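Aim 2, interim progress: modelling of the S-adenosylmethionine-bound target.
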Amino acid sequence: MIQTDLAIGLINPKFPHNVGAAVRAASCYGASHLFYTGDRIDEALVELKRLPREERMKGYRDVKWQRQEKFLELFDADIVPVAVELRPQAETLFDFVHPPRAVYIFGPEDGSLEPGILASCHRFIVIPTAHCLNLAAAVNVVLYDRTLKQHLSKNGLAWWS
Ligand SMILES: C[S@@+](CC[C@H](N)C(=O)[O-])C[C@H]1O[C@@H](n2cnc3c(N)ncnc32)[C@H](O)[C@@H]1O
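Predicted structure of the complex, ligand included:
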């Protein structure tokens, strides 16, 4: 079992540069693991050999990233799977109180999270934007929001603390 407070799941991502940028975000905000599903990244890596520069910067080696189809099974039951998707019933990120231990799950660049993975999630958030964000941008926004709210909470500045 993986013991962590923060991890990322990318469902069937299409572009290696987005996975690389998400690994970078994971490292910047202290996520220990990034899992991705699907075969598109591995197919692209046959030619590219490795992810774009983001993933190769040595400061980011603290993030364990790998393809893993059933990555949720690796976590203990106390971690909360949070679906990040444009869904009408989702909680807005503005008001979202992040679980102390969470794995944030994002959909592909050319699709959305499917019912199978949504059924495994316990919380659902939407980032209030006029249009869909780029995948890596969405990862950065969610992790920044979590970090900011932890900071506010620690300093007694938040309504939810
Ligand atoms: C580029 S978007 C998906 C594209 C979109 N479904 C389409 O093809 O029309 C990739 C992923 O980023 C996340 N995402 C992007 N913008 C978002 C937003 N405003 N709120 C929540 N998630 C978002 C979701 O996880 C989404 O599946």
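Residues 6-154 form a domain with the Alpha/beta knot fold (CATH 3.40.1280.10). The radius of gyration is 15 Å.
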